[in-house]
Amino acid sequence: MTVNSTSDPATAALPPRQTRRPQFLDHLMRHKGGAFGLGIMMLFVLLAVFGRLIAPYDPNASDYLSLLAPPSGEHWFGTDELGRDTLSRVIDGSRIAVAVAFLSVSIAMAVGVVIGVIAGYFGGLIDAVLNRSQDVLFAFPTLLLAIILVAVLGPGLFNASLAIAIVYSPRFARMARASTLSIQTSEYLDAARLAGVSTPTILIRHILPNVLPPVIVLAALSMSTAQLAYASLSFLGLGVSPPQADWGSMLSKGRDFITIAPWLVIWPTVALVMLMLAFNVLGDAIRDVLDPSHSGAGKSPETVV
Amino acid sequence: MATDGTTPLLQVENLKKQFHVRMRGARENRLLRAVDGVSLHLEAGETLGIVGESGCGKSTLARLIVGLEGPSEGRILIDGEDIWAPGAAGRARRRTFQMVFQNPAGSMNPRRTVGASVAEPLQAKGVRNTAEAVERMLKLVGLDPALATRKPHQLSGGQQQRASIARALIADPAIVVHDESIASLDISLQAQILNLLLDLQQDLGTSYIFISHDLAAVQAISHRVIVMYLGEIVEASDSTAFANRPLHPYSIALRTATLLPDPAHERGRGDTALRGDVPSPMNPPSGCRFHTRCPLATDLCLQQKPLLRDAGGGHLVACHYAEAETQAGETAEEAL
Amino acid sequence: MFRMIVTRLIGVFFVLLAVSALVFAFGALIPGDLTSVIVGQEGATEEQFEAVRQKLGLDKPLPVQYVNWLVNALQGDFGTSPITGRTVATDLMQQIPVSIELALLTLLVSTVIGLPAGVIAAVHANKRLDVLIRMSLLFTFSVPIFVIGILLLLVGSRWAPDLFRVSYTPWGEDPVMHIRSMAMPLLTIAFPITAMTMQMTRGAMLEVLHNPYIVTARAVGVREKRIQYLHALRNALPPIVTFIGFQLGILLGGLIVVEQIFSLPGLGRGMLEAINTRDYPMVTATTLVFATAFVIINALVDMLYPLLDPRQRGR
To answer: Looking at A154-158, B15-19, B124-128, C203-207, which range is the least confident one?
Structure first.
């Protein structure tokens, strides 16, 4: 594109148009990790959604003839002390894991972004108050806080997800606030105010699109730790109640039979680790695509215990 | 000047804006008097130029006038009514203004299309179908309407500024404030934009407040000129009188510092360079604020602050010695 | 310097106050009316109900309850557990030492192993050994502690039955058994924390090692070991020390999990049991102890920082 100051600027040639959406997915698929992570995650999502149809057995049905049976042609992953097929239970447990990951991160994102944007945009006292309270929340060790919250709310899938969401929301708030502050002084905000655009519209139309990309990256990366956090909670007995299959509680139960039936412990662990890896890899890929300037500084040890 | 007794479109009365600034490590806040008692008026269809160096408060004044910030003291009236009246009435009055910013892409969100940004003021008014209006405005400012689907960074600086102008005018404001709107463009583009603005003013009858440090541009486009220094007005007159005979020593220095393609002027420039730097607005000099740099300064200037007085024909100036200087200046030029 | 310590302490005091209020509020929110737990399900009469409520002080407004609770707590009286029948303080006294021992041992092990390991890793940065170690580190960070615990159980059940299936024995009873019973829990938490310490040390050391004054020291002829430990490490310490404070959070969470896995009678397991049995006084007490420990230790570490980094002192 040649810029000639004496020619009519209106007729200068322009680069061809590119739409945004397909471009993102396109890049993601091309990224090595992205394809892999996306693939495994989709696998788990499919298992989660269609698990009940795919699983060879009803996860809660007991086969009294094969209690604690080792892996065999009939039961690929063996059975537990009540004769339930481990493979089916692992598949069923993925429902919970995936559901909690999405639920808790979505809530954390929604709450965190709202708080962060409001604090950043309006500043002053509102910012001070919101920031301080987020800091207090942030200062607590993750698992401890989650346990306390579940103690207050009572165990269960939704409550556990809510507890995790509350623990994670300060991160999103902090990020959203930083993004908001970075464009706070932009002239187009002034122009919009001058044009008479209402404040909520300004927030949604101008602030939000700037806040979302890093937040989405954080969300993708958080799903991995959120899933693990839930597994810890359910391991401690604070998750869904039996007989619903659930990786954490399966591990807890499996502890008692570890010498005679190690498969009860091995397969849920494998599933857990695989899902965690998938989310991690996917999150890294999303981050690389959305923010290529980010240097691969390595994993942060800030996972939930 | 309201010669026929009707209320001017815009009246600014004794406007003041102060900021509390805390310097690092200092105990108390200092007071920054960005705008310190400015009064002016604007008629429909005319252009008021405001000149001054950076730090004189003209950007703050711009933001105060359009209502982006509230004044510490003073009033801003549209058709005689206060723009800061509470409620819907005040809001409606504040919407009579639009602004074109210094940064050409300034008023446009880099993530939205040019068309969307240009349409925004109209959308805010509740108009649903903005496509036609956007097309019309883009053509009016000399842009290909196809540019509406591009993002701001895909346009050149000149195109961006034209788009900003289109955006400013689309909702038919009564007054558009230009805050150094051509400063970042190169000279030929500046000339084009100035011509565009003049044409648009003829077609649409919009009033402008044109703020700049560039005296030449201000004189080219304004009906009346105001000179600002450290938050105050030091001179005000219609632009022809000002171009012929600036009275205030500061205005004279500004003018001689302006590069003009006129050999006589360039030769006669001599050493009228101002002494020293602009004092800090937090600690303005006593008496006449300009006295620290003024070649004509005397003890009187240090003690007594000169008020704006009429030096003849509606030409206002705030200086104790204004006419003396110009006479001396004229004799110097005649001598060449 | 002195002024800073005092301000810090005042700050800590207020934080603790806020934390205690928060903990009390949480406790008060736990569903399940304490009174009914005590009185029992069978049709108690209204008067009996009221009598118990009054005795527990539950009929007074919440803020008053809070103050009473706090005052008592400061004197060491956390009330009586309706579930176990013992005073909460008794249980706490038994549980806290266990947890403290585990925590201290973990810190000791992780520092003694992690610090030198990190130094070595930094010195041999990017060579094969380092890369190998870093890969395995990645794993230990990412995986939750209870998974590590279970894996260790697996391994232990096969290859080290001596360490496996040993229930907790206090030091006083049988030192050997005690060590055996603590070995696996210790290993479980120490694993990720050592890994983190090592990673942190390596990172901090790498930054410091590239500083000009290190190169100068080498050029002048100072012995390598001396350089590494005296010069480099000392300057790398501040971030490492603050990191230890950060580890604290993970440590606390880890304690709870590990005590549960290995059935250690510590504070973490006490808290979990209390939650599951709706033992309201116990829950608030244990949470308070945890939170207080966290806040105080963090504050101590914060105050330690200027001591280690002279540049920070003039604030």
So the answer is: C203-207
- Show the beta-strand stretches assigned E in chain B: 10-21, 30-42, 47-51, 73-78, 81-82, 97-100, 175-179, 207-212, 224-229, 232-238, 309-310, 316-317
Q: What is the pLDDT of residues C164-181, one digit of tens each?
A: 666 777 777 777 778 878
Whether B83 and B67 have beta carbons less than 8 Å apart is answered as: yes
Residues of A in contact with B123 (CB under 8 A): 197
Structural domain containing residue C106 = 98-312
CB atoms inside a 10 Å sphere around CB C303: 15
**So what's the ipTM on this one?**
0.78
The rounded distance, in Å, linking the Cα atoms of C291 and A60 is 40
pTM of the model: 0.77
> Is residue C22 domain-resident?
no
CA distance A303 to chain C (A): 6
Chain C adjacent subunits, 3+ CB pairs under 8 A: A
Measured between beta carbons, the chain C residues lying within 8 angstroms of A305 are 144-146, 192, 250, 253-254, 257
Task: Report the Cα B162 to chain-centroid distance in Å.
Answer: 19
Q: How far is A262 from chain C (nearest CA, A)?
A: 7
**For an interface test with B, which of A2, A182, A186, A194 has the most B Cβ atoms less than 10 Å from its Cβ?**
A194
Q: Chain A residues with CB inside 8 Å of B167's CB? A: 191, 195
DSSP classification of residue C195:
H
* Number of domains forming the structure of chain C: 1
pLDDT tens digits for range A113-139: 999 999 999 988 888 888 877 877 777
Query: Is A151 in the C-facing interface, judged by CB distances under 8 Å?
Result: yes
Q: Note whether B touches A: 3 CB pairs or more under 8 A.
A: yes
Q: Where are the alpha helices (DSSP H) in B149-238?
A: 157-169, 187-204, 215-221
Q: Which residues contact A128 (CB under 8 A, 6 or more apart)?
A: none
CATH code of C239's domain = 1.10.3720.10
